Amino acid sequence: MAKRAKANKPKRPKAILPRGFSDLSGDDVLERQQMIETIAEVYRTYGFQPLETPTIEYLDALGKFLPDKDRPGEGVFAFRDDDEDWVALRYDLTAPLARYVAQNRNELTMPYRRYQVGLVYRQEKPGPGRFRQFYQCDFDTVGSRSMAVDAEVCALVADALEALGIERGGYTVKINNRKVLNGILTQAGIATISDDAAAAEDVASPATVRAQVLRSIDKLDRVGIGGVADLLGKGREDESGDFTDGVGLAEDQIERIIGFVTAGETGGGSRSEVLDRLSDLVGDDPDGREGIDELATIDELLVAADIGADRVEIDPTVVRGLDYYTGPVFEAVLSADDDSGQGGADGRRSYGSVVGGGRYDDLVKRFTGQEVPACGASIGVDRLLAALRDRGRIGGDETQGPVVVTVMDGDRLADYQAMVAELRRAAIPAELFLGKKNLGNQLKYADRRGSPVAVIAGSDEFSTGTVVIKNLRYGKEVSLGIEDRDEWLKAADVQETIARDALVSTVAELLGRSADEDAS
Amino acid sequence: MAKRAKANKPKRPKAILPRGFSDLSGDDVLERQQMIETIAEVYRTYGFQPLETPTIEYLDALGKFLPDKDRPGEGVFAFRDDDEDWVALRYDLTAPLARYVAQNRNELTMPYRRYQVGLVYRQEKPGPGRFRQFYQCDFDTVGSRSMAVDAEVCALVADALEALGIERGGYTVKINNRKVLNGILTQAGIATISDDAAAAEDVASPATVRAQVLRSIDKLDRVGIGGVADLLGKGREDESGDFTDGVGLAEDQIERIIGFVTAGETGGGSRSEVLDRLSDLVGDDPDGREGIDELATIDELLVAADIGADRVEIDPTVVRGLDYYTGPVFEAVLSADDDSGQGGADGRRSYGSVVGGGRYDDLVKRFTGQEVPACGASIGVDRLLAALRDRGRIGGDETQGPVVVTVMDGDRLADYQAMVAELRRAAIPAELFLGKKNLGNQLKYADRRGSPVAVIAGSDEFSTGTVVIKNLRYGKEVSLGIEDRDEWLKAADVQETIARDALVSTVAELLGRSADEDAS
Prior knowledge:
2 copies of one chain form a homodimer.
Chain A: H1 2-8, E1 24-25, H2 27-45, E2 49-52, E3 56-58, H3 59-62, E4 78-80, E5 86-89, H4 94-103, E6 112-121, E7 133-142, H5 147-163, E8 171-177, H6 178-187, H7 195-201, H8 206-218, H9 220-232, E9 235-237, E10 243-245, H10 251-261, H11 271-282, H12 286-304, E11 312-314, E12 328-337, E13 348-360, H13 365-368, E14 374-379, H14 381-390, E15 403-405, H15 413-425, E16 430-432, H16 439-448, E17 453-456, H17 459-464, E18 466-471, H18 472-479, H19 485-490, E19 495-499, H20 503-510
Helix pairs in contact in A: 2-5, 5-12, 6-12, 8-9, 11-12
C-alpha cells in the first residue's frame, strides 16, 4: 500500500512565498490601515486629492530613478507583456505621478496637489525588515515654484506624525537644500568645470563628484564625522578591513564640507542661527545664495504657521540619496528617551528616517520637454509602524474577537444561528462555532480568537428558554492567579444563566455597548 | 534655431499606460475606499479577520484556476525573478489563501475565517469596463463542512449589500448546488462512465461533458432557454452567423436539463417549493440527494436568521464558471425598476452578477494532500460601484474641496500661510493658492477645486485687521440664473468683510461645523 501511494504521489507545489515577500494578518493589517487612514485625513485637510495609478507601467515611462544607479535595470521587476512591450511594476509613486501629469496636463487644475497610497515593488536583496513589496504614502504638489509648497511639506509631516500620536519632541522634521551644498562645492573649487571639459580631460564629471560627495555625507550616521572626512579624502578602511575608495579632495576642500555638515550641530540653536552659519560658508556663490534664500523663506513661513525649531529644524547632514532632487530636501526622524544603553550619546534612541522627500523639477520634463516644478514627500508607513510598536504606542492589546456561539447540539444549528444573527443585527461581531469539537475545545477556540463572551445552550437551556453567557475576559483576569486553565473555565462566577430574550441586551452590556437592534 | 533644437531633441518616453490599465482620481478613489470599508466592517461583524498576502507568488503555487481553462498559462502575468524561478501576479485571492493555509496549517485556529481586499491581475483581452487589474473583496471560511458556513455566506452578502444602501428588493442572492446538477446528469445517463473508460473509448471524459453543460447553462442570459437547448444539442448559430458546436446530447437528456434550469422559474415561490421540484428531478441519485439535503439545511438556517426568499433564493441557473467548486455556489444580482425601455420583460433592469462564490474542497489539498473544506465569496467592488453610480446611489454631488486662501500680495505669504494653518488646526481642509495668477483666476481655480469658501486679503484688509470671505457655494447657486460668470463673482451678497480674528469661526459657521481649534 505504502509503495503504491508513493508511486501515485502527485507532484505537489510547495506552500511558500518567493523570498522578500511576506503575509500580514489580523491586527497587523488593521493597525497599518488605521495609520494610513489617519495620514490620508491629514493630507485631505491640507487640500490634497487622492490618485490611484496602476501597479504596471511601461518601463520607459517609469525611467530609472532608484537610489542605486550603479546597476541600472536592476532593482525593478520588469517583463514583456503580450504585446512584447517592456512593462514593470512601479518601484515608487513619483514616477507614475510624472507620467500622469504629463498625460493629463491639459485637463489638470494647476497647481495640482495629490496624495497616493499604494504598494511599490523592488527586486533588491531582501533582508531583515527589508521587503520586496512595501507601502508608500506620498503627497506632492505639482506646478508651483513657491517656497510655500516646501514649507507646507514640513508642516504637514509634523502634523501627520502628531496625528499618529507621536508627542512633540518625539520627532524632528529636517530640511536642507541641495543648492547650498552645490554652492559650497563651487566655493571650494570642486566640480566647477563643465561636463564637456571633464569628458575631454578624462576626469570625473561635476555630476559624478557631487554624487560622490552626497553619498559620503549620507554615511555620517554609520561612519561618524571622521569617517566622512576619510571618504571625502583618500578613502576609508572599516572594522572588517574592507577599503572604500575616497573622492580624493584636498584637505582645505574637505574642511569646508565638514564645516557645512557640522553647521547644524555647533551650538544648535534656532533655524536662523543655522542659516547664518551656512550663509557665511556659502559666501557669494549665486547657487548657494539662492539656496539660503529659499531656506530663509521656508523658515519665515513656518514661523507664521507657529512651527518652531522643536518641530522643524535645518540640518545640513540631510542629503537624501535620490539624484532627481534639485532644491530643498526633507527628512523626518523619530527618537525617544532610552535607558537600555542602546541609545546615542544623548541618551536618546533614534529610529532613523521615517519620511523623505524634496523638490524636483525635471520628472515631467522627461515626457513633455517642459519643466514642471514639483515638490513632495513620502511617509514610510512600515518603518513608522515598526517604530511605534517598539515604543509601545500601538499593538500590545489584541483587538477584541467576535462573540462565539457554541454548538452543544448539532440538530439545533438553526437555533444557534438565530442567536448569532440577532447579535450581528445589533452590530456586535459574532460567529457560530463551525467545527466539530466538544465544549471545552470550543471555548479554547473562543479564547484563541480573543472572544470576550461565549454563548452556551444545551437541552436544559432550550427547555427552560434560557442561555448561558460566559464572560471570557473576566475569566482571563481571574485566571492570572490560577494555575489550571480548566479550573477557571468551570468557575461559576464567570458565567451566568439568563433568559433567551435577554441575550443581546446582556451581551451588549457586558461589552459596554448600547443594545441597538438596528445599528446596521 | 529650429533645426538645432530638432537635432538635439532627446528621445522622450510616451506618457501613456499599457492597455487595460487606468488611473483613478479624486472622488472615484474615495467612493471605492468607502465602499470597501463598509463591506469590511460587515465582514468583521461576521467574525472574519483580515489577511494581506503579497502581489507576487510562485506560479506553481497559484496553479491554474482561471475560468477559461482552454488556454492554460494565458491570462496570468508571469515572469522569471532574479533566481530564475517562475513567479506571477496573483489573479485572484483564493489561490493565495490556499497557499497561506497550507503554509500555516499548524498555527492557524480552525475553522479559519479570513477576509482580504486587494488588487488582482489578469493578462486578458481588455474591453469597456474590463481591466487588467481590479479589486477583489473576498471572505472565506476554511476548515468546516457545516452548511452553516454556506448559509452564512448568503446572509453576509445580503447584509453587505444593504449596508451599502441597496434597498431590500433591489438585490437577490442566489444559491445553487453543483451536486444537484451532477445528480441530474447521472439520472439522464450523461457523464456516467469513468474517466479511464472514457479515455480508452476515446470519448469526452465526464469532467469535460459536465464542464460543457455548465458552460451552456451559463450562457442562458445571453442566448435564452432555446439557445441553451441548441447548445446542449447540435449547436447554435448566432445573429452574426457564427456557429458554436453543441454538446451533442439526446432530446430527452436535454429536456431533463432544461427542466432543471427552469425549476426556479415555473411558478416562482418559496425556496422550499423550488427544492421540491428539484427533488423530483433528481430522483434517488445519491449525489443529487446530497445536494438537495445541503440546500434544505441552508434554507432552514436562513429561515432561522429570518432571511426570506425576497433576499436569498434558490436558482438552478446559477453555475459559476470556476471548475473548483464542489457543492453550493452563490451569486448576487442587482436590479432596479426601469422605465427607459432597456429593462427586461418584467420592466426591471438587471446589473448582472456583483458577487460570486461557492464551496471548494480541493484547493489546499494541492499542497498538502489533505482535503480541507472551504467556502466563501467575492464581492465585485468595481461592478457594484458602476451599478450604484448608474442608479444615482453614489456620485453626483462632488465632494467639497478645501477652503482656498488667495494671494493678493506676494510679500505677505507668511500672513496668508498663518490663515491656512489656523483653518487646518480647526480640521477645516484648507490650502494656500500656490501659483502666480490674478485674483479672478485664483477664484476660478477655487471653483474648479470645488471650494466652498475663498479667503481674500489685500492691503486694505491688512491695514484694518480684516479679511474678505467669499461664499462660493452661495455664488454657485445664484449663478445658475446668471449668464456671465464674472458677474456673480463680483456680486456683493456672496462676500463679506469680517475681523481677521473671526476667520476660523466665520468659515466654520458657513460650513456648518463647530469651530473647535483643537479638533486635530
